[in-house]
Write a structure and sequence with these properties.
By secondary structure, the protein is α/β, with parallel strands linked by helices. The chain has 38 helices and 21 strands. β13 and β14 form a beta hairpin. Part of an energy-coupled inorganic carbon pump.
Length: 1006
Amino acid sequence: MDLGRKLWIRSLVNVSAEPIPYFWPMRTFVHHNPLHELEELSFWEAVREGERIFGGRGFLSREGYQYLMERGRIREEYLRNRVVEFLEEENLHISGLDTAELVVRLITDRRNLNPRVNRIRKDIPEDLVEFVLGEFREDPAEEMETLFTSVGKERTLYEAIDELTGSDLSSVIDDLVARSMIGFLDEGQAAVAMPRRELGLFRAWKELAKHNVRFLLRAGFGFWKLVQKFEEPEEAIEYVLQDLNIPEYLWSDYITRELSRLKGIVGFLRWRQHNRDYFWQKKYPADVVDYAAVRLIIVRAVLSFRARSIPFGADYRCLEKLLREDRKRAYLMREYFSGRAVPRYAEKLPEYFKNPESIIEEYLREKALWNAKVFLSFLYEWLSLSGIGLEDIGHSEVLGLVKLHRRLQEKEGVIWLKAMEDTLLESLVSGMKPVRREEDKVAQALFCIDVRSERFRRNLEALGGYETHGIAGFFGVPMAFVELEKGHEEFLCPVILRPGNVVLELPVRRESSTSPKGAVEEIFHDLKENVLTPFVTVEAIGFLFGFDFIGKTFLPTVYSRAREKVLERKPPTRLLLEKLGDEEIEHVVKSVLGAIVRVALDRELGIKADVRTTEEVLETILEGKELCESLPVSEERQREFFKKLRTDYRVDRGSASLIREKLKHVGFSLEEQAALIAVALKSIGLVKDFAPIVLVLGHGSRSENNPYESALDCGACGGASGTHNARAFCVMANNPKVRTILRERFGIDIPESTYFVPGLHNTTTDEIKLYDLELLPPKLLPLLERIEEDLRRAGETTALERAKELGVGQVYRKVVENAYDWSQVRPEWGLSGNYAFIIGRRELTAGMNLGGKVFLHSYDYKVDPKGFLLENILSGPLVVGQWINMEHYFSTTDNEVYGSGSKVYHNVAGRIGVMTGNLSDLRTGLPAQTVLKKGKPFHTPVRLIALIEAPLEFVKKVVGRVHKIRELVHKEWINMVVLDPERNTFYRFMDGDWVEIKSISEEVKT
């Protein structure tokens, strides 16, 4: 295959994969919109496209919406308004009937009347049946043409064959592909690792396929021969598509359909392919081109193996011949094998497959009569809801109701959704009466915007003397964090950012050096010691892990808390936030490479080198020389040694440059620190009147035996806890040099008497843990005691409030036990129920109980004259909020397709995700226990309401500058509302324009 063709196929596959959303490893679960790649479409178009590609529902069932309506989340007046709007848009009003009343009665009736589930009445007038019969008669030619043109867009070739023959080709192919992928993608869970993965996915799989008996049994003897035909994945893709006679113009859509069959695995491969620095991707490379090749080879082999059982052939042209030249036979086959046949013919249709002409007209009329009578029987009951009899209306009105109902089936979800959003929006804005509290401040507290913070903030403020603010939980400090005793970087920021600064966590020394060189020596010593620590401690404490099963089962809370104290408590640590100078960097480089040189000298030459000899050898190699005079070995051995030092030990100028470059990214300059703090404080409007203590509280979750634990952590920290970002923020904000820059360059004067204290809000127990208290000025200790007591009281109140939803009774201990009980499938509700994102002053919502369902981001447009701060909030936190909202939305509307089903059936797969049962696709989205309660929707699936407090014209300009938000607003992915404080009026973006919806009262002082 020539290079141009190869590149074209690679490009084709990658473009075809774009509708498949990324899937992050579960240990860093990232909330995302499962239709994110379709956001260039309108919300309504994307829902339809998602149904086509993934087979997922974009709306709840009628029963689901009725359930929410009974609980006050949908008001009938708004439902009726949306029904009228639907009838007008579709021009479906029927003369002589209150059509809107008929529709409202139908969709709100708890019997859930539906043509598919009603028995046929015997008193239906025959003339009426004959009158409407044409509406229910099917045309085999039209039906089969629709089926044929769907191949490539809505079905694969073998899915169409399954539908026509009742075979199970799809499940066989998916099973073989999933087993192949999970084996390759495993990250240390498998007892026996797949061999030769370093070759890459396609080549490693080829090697495995030679010896795998499962493929032989399910794909036949021709499988091994087929596999060995191809050296490159692109060759396999082209060969199979051509061999199946798929027209080239269909290749892109066809590949998309193939990839969507296992969207979790493909989404993970797409993520890995995009993150080339990911450890497992560098070690065992894989991409969607490799995957497509593997899958298509399996498809071709299985189809060839099953060819004898497929009566019309197993390629695109054979299918076309059947569906276009033998339509009646094909129609009867699909009726029988897909369960569409009317009861009278359900068993005997196969008798007519060879001679369809003898039965087709009789069958078509029988099916039309059946469907017409089913609908008219349903219509009797529908009309009776309004006290109308079928005999009370004319035939033409009946025909109109047939068409109305057909259109209603397509649009009912839209009607319900809009009515629910109207209800929630009205409740939100009508309760918004600005309240400004005038009281002395005990403390100020910065919380994450996370909906779970709303409850805690409200309960803390109720104690008096507390002013709280909402900010994205990474606190404006994006960083790559290297935790103590862990050797890898963790990106602590929203996934839409890539941090450019590295922060190291080091143990606190009782006596630290004050000289720069001494400090660097300590840093190097700490790094070296804490790389070795895990290897030492695991063996020493390993025997204790045997007690886990007994302890976690019978005494979960007591045991787990004791275990945390004994095993999981880290020594006191500090964060290395300062930039290293050139001299310091050079010292570390030589220390690191010198340590390697000493090991090499001992191992290769048997020389126990002193410092001078080590330095001379290192200098020799970094200067590109071949010999070192101080080495007591022959020139030949020296040349061999230096060659090995460069190749095997990687000690050379390139390695030195690489280390220097990495060290340049460690820490932040003072100017960078001041800029980060200034932007964060200005973005929430906290630029003056600082309290003596400012709490900076990240959040995290705690649970046992929960693969989804990181889904409960901080989305703004990339699915990790917010502890480290809070600590980093406080170190910066407490630095006198940073404060000087803040005062002189940014006009923010933080008094010397103000101290920032980091902490963590455990959202499972609502406990607050404060950090770095040993650094707190002694004079603030009495105040701290009061604050800690108030935090405890607010936490208990919050936990008891949550206990009602969790159904554990009004006992605080029961809420805490959820965090330690490893049989608990719902330790907390997390972000379930989120429906709005408010950007504005706390005064707007201070008088409201928002039930832990609203994101609250503090903002004061008066300190943001150019709108740059609002721009940052829209492009960062609001986008993340929309991802969270859409993940919950679609996981609720279709938990099996867009969510991950019940946790009860989950098994961890390869340490990257979960599968259902022993083998399935990687399950994406949220589990049922996060969004459903006893099978009913707990989460309210609506599009996010984004409410901004700022002048309307100001907001319009800022939104216009942020492409992503402008797209989300205009394409109706979010409902944007503006509260213009200069006019005291709410405006909502609807149908391409801003519409005034409500006025608001003046601010109230308390």
